[in-house]
Amino acid sequence: MKDEVTREERIDNLKGMGCSRKRVEDARFTQGKGNYVDDIKLDGMLFGDFVRTPYAHARIVSINTEEAMKVPGVLAVLTAADLEPLGLHWMPTLAGDKQMVLADGKVLFQGQEVAFVVAEDRYAAADGIELVEVEYEELPVIVDPFEALQSDVVLREDLVGDGGTLPDGAHGPRKHHNHIFTWEAGDKDPTAEVIAEADVVAEESMYYHRTHPCPLETCGCVASMDKVNGKLTLWGTFQAPHAIRTVVSLISGIEEHNIRVISPDIGGGFGNKVGAYPGYVCSVVASIVTGKPVKWIEDRMDNLMTTAFARDYHMTGKIAATKEGKITALQCHVTADHGGFDACADPTKFPAGFMNICTGSYDIPTAYLEVDGVYTNKAPGGVSYRCSFRVTEAVYFIERMIEVLAIELNMDAAELRRINFIKKEQFPYKAALGWEYDSGDYHTAWDKALKAVDYDGLRAEQAQRVADFKAGKTRSLMGIGLSFFTEIVGAGPVKNCDILGLGMFDSCEIRIHPTGSAIARLGTISQGQGHATTFAQILASEIGLPADSITIEEGDTDTAPYGLGTYGSRSTPVAGAATAMAGRKIRAKAQMIAAYLLEVHDNDVEFDVDRFVVKGAPEQFKTMKEIAFAAYNQAIPGIEPGLEAVSYYDPPNMTYPFGAYVCVMDIDVDTGVPDIRRFYALDDCGTRINPMIIEGQVHGGLTEALAVSLGQEIAYDDMGNVKTGTLMDFFLPTAWEVPNYETDHTVTPSPHHPIGAKGVGESPHVGGVPCFSNAVQDAFRPFGNRHTNMPHDHWRIWKTAHDLGLHD
Amino acid sequence: MSRKMHITMTVNGKEEEFLAEPRELLIYTLRERLNITGPHIGCETSHCGACTVTIGGKSVKACTMFVAQADGADITTIEGIGGPDDLHPLQTAFKEHHGLQCGYCTPGMITRATKLLEENPNPTEEEIRFGMAGNLCRCTGYQNIVKSIQAAAAEMAAAKEAAE
Amino acid sequence: MIPAAFAYYRPTDMAGVISLLQEHGDDARVMAGGHSLIPMMKLRMADVPHLIDLQAVGGLSGIAIGSGGIRIGAMVTQSEIIADDALSTAAPILREAALQIADPQVRNMGTVGGNVANGDPGNDMPGLMQCLDATFSLIGPDGVRDVPARDFYEAAYMTARGDEEVLTAVTIPLPAGGYAYEKQKRKIGDYATAAAAVQIVKDGDICTAASIAMTNLSDTPIFSEAAGAALIGTSVDDAALQAATDAMQGDIDPSEDNRGPVAFKKHVAGVILRRAIARAWSRA
Known about the structure:
The complex is a heterotrimer of chains A (808), B (164) and C (284).
Chain A lengths: L6 H8 L11 H5 L15 E7 L5 E7 L1 H5 L3 E5 L1 H4 L6 E3 L5 E3 L5 E2 L5 E7 L2 H10 L1 E6 L6 H6 L28 E8 L1 H10 L2 E12 L8 E7 L4 E6 L4 H12 L6 E4 L15 H13 L3 E4 L2 H7 L3 E12 L5 E13 L26 E10 L15 H19 L3 H8 L8 E2 L5 E2 L4 H11 L2 H16 L5 E11 L11 E2 L2 E2 L2 E7 L5 E5 L8 H13 L6 E5 L16 H28 L6 E4 L2 E4 L2 E7 H10 L10 E6 L8 E11 L4 E12 L6 H20 L31 E4 L17 H18 L13 H10 L5
Parallel strand pairs in A: 1-14, 12-13, 16-17, 24-25, 31-32
Antiparallel strand pairs in A: 1-7, 2-6, 2-8, 3-7, 4-5, 9-17, 10-15, 11-12, 11-14, 15-16, 18-19, 20-30, 21-22, 23-24, 23-29, 26-27, 27-28, 30-31
Chain B lengths: L4 E7 L2 E7 L5 H8 L18 E4 L2 E4 L12 E3 L12 H8 L9 H14 L5 H7 L11 H21 L1
Parallel strand pairs in B: 1-5
Antiparallel strand pairs in B: 1-2, 3-4, 3-5
Chain C lengths: L6 E3 L4 H11 L3 E4 L5 H6 L7 E4 L9 E3 L4 E4 L4 H6 L1 H6 L1 H7 L5 H6 L2 H6 L7 H7 L3 E6 L2 E6 H4 E3 L2 E2 L6 E7 L5 E7 L9 E10 L2 E10 L6 E2 L1 H7 L6 H14 L10 H22 L1
Parallel strand pairs in C: 1-3, 2-3
Antiparallel strand pairs in C: 4-5, 5-10, 6-7, 6-10, 8-9, 11-12, 12-13, 13-14
């Protein structure tokens, strides 16, 4: 048989790793044929929705459901009293705390779920909600965590023992009745000593405001209890379907094999859909009670007010350096506002997530971090909004501290970074706060970025602008925002990372069909990342079958192998590795089959793109397609029929993607309006699986970073009312407010990942937020600005200018 | 007071007739009554555009219209714009240029873009950004959406030229 | 977000509208495009047991430009304003302002009548109409009457329109000179942090007439007669600009919201007005 196709053509035909394969998901989405949870319609399906409290802190005196029950179509109104006999009025949180499913005696934040109205349609449910009468007795509201730690007001009476004693929380001793935990990393006293003796110390306090992931699709579910065969099916917006199955089993008592959790198409997650919410529990209970399927879908106000806030970190830092600018120590204290319940979505042993990556990309010999978690009258959540477990906060902190130190040293901030970067030859690098960075080449990336934007030219232009401003020739200032970030993603090694005791491995199962196509199932779930496209590319390169012949399936716990889901940029580092490893098992068996078919020893054949060839005789080969067929039709001595493999991958370490970003911004001093003139983003995510998708992820992450840094917040008034509950006030930029981005890359493969990939989805958000913020602050540096808090909306920018006397 | 109304409307060329409460929102009529689930619900306050449909030749947000208002209307949704055998150039271009990620905004985005290109067949980047500003996307940062619309405009112009 | 149930009416003539208003009084509301009212109903902040849709009522559409002025029917949409080339020649400030309202889809539904009649201080058209010295035509059980835009607004959502009256048209004297509608907002779709409408007439180097109105800086639109007067007779130099903005500051009374505190809004109002005057002057 003559091979007409060149080796390059064979590689191209696979559409494997490194090519910008078009997405297989897009056909259905562009034709309106996606299948999101609210698209699910079942016979007899009921609708459930919540009565929510308007008060942020109140005792519930009484709940009267009589009038609501009279609304035609209303079938049930569930309250905590109904759930209590089932033990479901409270549920465990991911952070080791517990959370009310329905208000049990009191409410702790505005919008908290008080009763669940179940009706034949959404109209009856809405009318029923209006008629549930709840009598409240208002209690003092605390929205400030510092006040909470001083206040006599007890937010969580359930966590206070007899005589006012304070039993330990899930993360050790508590200092005050509104205190949740103290978490430390690094060396306290040595850090203090270095700081006390340092040439230069810069101190700064900063508030990383509360915000929200706000995917375009809100959270929701459909629960369907089939009483005939005892099976519960739960469709929902779950970023971790298997974990949801386990949680539902543990709290409901339904055996796990009788629960099927399905994540259909998900309209964006960004961390919002990691947690377990009262709506899920109430829908399950309502379906059990009524014997009918029950749908619950949040509206946008519910979503912004109650599920999954992010950030809300008050951070205070000290950074010490020699007078030449070599950093010698870093100290960080965080007061973390967790709201009414500690429902933060972090690996169990990390109540402040990976905040201890806050030494950033710098070789800092000594460091200490202390985080205090605090209860307030705000919504619970604490999710990783497009980041890996508080990495965004950590990177924001260090990238602001670097800027403040540069001011203290009267030094260029780009140069200060350069002289402190961890050097290429120092990897693997053990950081002072405990992590071992797997790989990096920061200097190369930084130099490439600064050259690409003509950094020196920009600084000269900025100096001219300042001179013109001072001469009264312009009212516009120019800011150059820099950021260099190192992420820590791919949670993670089971030895460090678990959620509710579930190790954070991930999985892939592959079945090769006789005719040379395949299906692979994973424990992750795409929310727009394009897994069906990229995981097939990994497999195509690993097993030599075209990506177009490989179906990727996720999200159905009855078929997919157990996995911990998609968040924290973990899909590529963990499930991507599992995919490669499962592919290698397939290849190993294929090698034996090929050798048998070619009548040579196993070691005498080698893999080449899409086939095994006899070493030294490449004209003798068997394609993977031929091998697949043989696996099913030939009796091969010593080899089982079939060609399947499964891999559960427990990564040996996290991966550490990094990047260098530069933002150029003009600021109208008189109105506070910023104009992003240029944004350059260099990302190093190791091996690049699909450059088109990487670039799309970078655009999206940067836009979310723009939103967070320039205006997006969940703001409360003193009474605990949410001031930003609709998209009029919660800032999601339109195409008009967003610039074009320039993307670039270097490639430093992860040494421990089977294909060297590190993950990229969250990098642009993590690196983008400080970059935008630094641009704003840099514009005012020549006039004495040190630090101002985000979000840099028009009035806060204006205030900065005003406070610096620039309006005089 | 809330008597059901007799409603007729044309959706994607098909006559529909049913009884509905006037307060039923058009987006629910489409999604739940007529099983046309391409248009989505994102914000419910007419900010996000996920529910965008075409009514009487104009782009409209179906979350902010009662079914009663749409009695007698001629409505086109993403399902009426193109299917497997007759894809609209925008549908092709969004895939070709990675103009979508999670796909939730996409039906509204493409439905709006069909009208934008009718109103202005050769828009500049700025005109696209302004003309698409009623549709929010959380995933793409818009850059590739703009690129997709530019590509579709070029494709449609070329096809028109070839036809003449 | 589901509104409370209501009865829906789609009368085909104004007599039908008026009789429904008379029958149901406070319980009835007329609706044009619905993009102000429907969100309020969905949030159950507006209770409307009887909803009267104006879409089929004759005589409420159309833009007529005559020597005496411009008549815009209440049901004319923002999109129609933008698309009307003759209107944009006769009164270009209307297109400039309409393009800064909401987004394309909302402009397809949002009407001039709804925008001016609702009394929402965030709406852009009321200030614009005050700047242009428009007259609003109202029809009610007692017949037709005209109310100057400058006398129409009493407080937030409170206007001179009676409960049984419907706003049918806006009439604008043909504007002369240069124009500008300048608006600062947080993003597309937002209400103004501050907005200024300016029409200005120039004779030689001297301003002979000036009309100025501000949006979202009080609980009503603010027609600042004093600000306009401060420009007349001047060459619109720095001193005149300062005098005009100072006069405007005396008329506005902004309140704090998510866009910022009062001091910020006042400062931005001054900046926006200066820019609007400068642009209008350059076009005069």
